[in-house]
Amino acid sequence: MTGAHRFWVWSSAAALVLASYLCGYAARAAKDYPSLLNLPRRQYAQVWDMLAASPELARVAATGEPDESSLRRSAQTPLKHLMELAGVRPEDDILEFGCGVGRIGLELASRCRSWTGADISANMLATAAKRLEGVSNVRLVRLQQIGLDQLDNNSFDLVYSTNMLAHLDEMDRWRYVKDAFRVLRAGGRICIDNLDLESEEVWAAFARSAESLQVLERVPYWPTPSTTVEFTTYASRAGFVNGQVHKRPPLIILTASKPTTV
């Protein structure tokens, strides 16, 4: 990594370390993660396979720390959001897209009938498989392309994603929301989150980066925030109803449901 790009990763990451949700980016800079500027942003599998080249690096990519205890602790806040805002029932079949190392799945599996984790990175899923050994009601699916084509229609009660959409471009975010509608059963729920561009913390970090770092190329894993209008547009256009936006700074969280008759 050149000196200029090392500075970019460090200063931009430091500006966006707003909560434990984001601590991984500062750790990447401190550990001199590769810039991966040779890879386009949409080569998600290659980017995240390189960032998760070992189980230790996979955990760092998820939380900023290489140890399992930090990984378990980091899951508690997103798990709390999911339980409070989307609800998790013992009879639910649940899908997480962009599951990474199974950070949330390990905590959630005992609370539902089944948990499925889908991801495009083979290396992330390899670490997830190791972490989930011995948990009988889980399965992992390696996505072959963007979207949920490998998953059946009307097969889940809850679809969620956390700490993932920030790494996708807008068209790919839309694709996953649209596919979530298809794989949900009637009355099923969706819960997605991203950094909230409208929050004071995220806007301040975004504006500082735009002012001082405009001339440098963005690394392909750099997170980009969302807005209320973006999230509600995806949900309504996909066919969801009862959409609600929840502000949990620095996050925006959308919940919505599939109509009971479609």
**Overall CATH class:** Alpha Beta
Please list the strands of the largest sheet in the order they lie side by side: 3-2-1-4-5-7-6
Q: Mind summarizing the main beta sheet?
A: 7 strands, mixed
Question: How many independent structural domains?
Answer: 1
CATH topology description: Rossmann fold
Shape, principal axes of CA atoms = globular
User: Rg from C-alpha positions?
Assistant: 18 Å
CATH superfamily: Vaccinia Virus protein VP39
The helical percent reads 40-55%
Which labels suit this protein?
262 residues; alpha/beta; Rossmann fold; seven-stranded mixed β-sheet; 11 helices; 19% strand; disordered N terminus
Structure description:
The protein is of the alpha/beta class. The protein contains eleven helices and seven strands. A seven-stranded mixed β-sheet has the order 3-2-1-4-5-7-6, sandwiched between helices. The chain is globular, with a radius of gyration of 18 Å. Residues 1-31 have low confidence and may be disordered.
Secondary structure layout plus pairing:
Elements: H1 3-15, H2 23-30, H3 44-51, H4 55-63, H5 68-74, H6 76-85, E1 93-97, H7 105-108, E2 114-119, H8 122-131, E3 138-142, E4 156-161, H9 170-183, E5 184-195, H10 200-212, H11 228-238, E6 241-248, E7 251-257
Précis, in short:
The protein is an alpha/beta fold and about 260 residues long. It has helices at about 5-15, 25-30, 45-50, 55-65, 70-75, 75-85, 105-110, 120-130, 170-185, 200-210, 230-240, and strands at about 95, 115-120, 140, 155-160, 185-195, 240-250, 250-255. β4, α9 (about 170-185) and β5 (about 185-195) form a beta-alpha-beta unit.
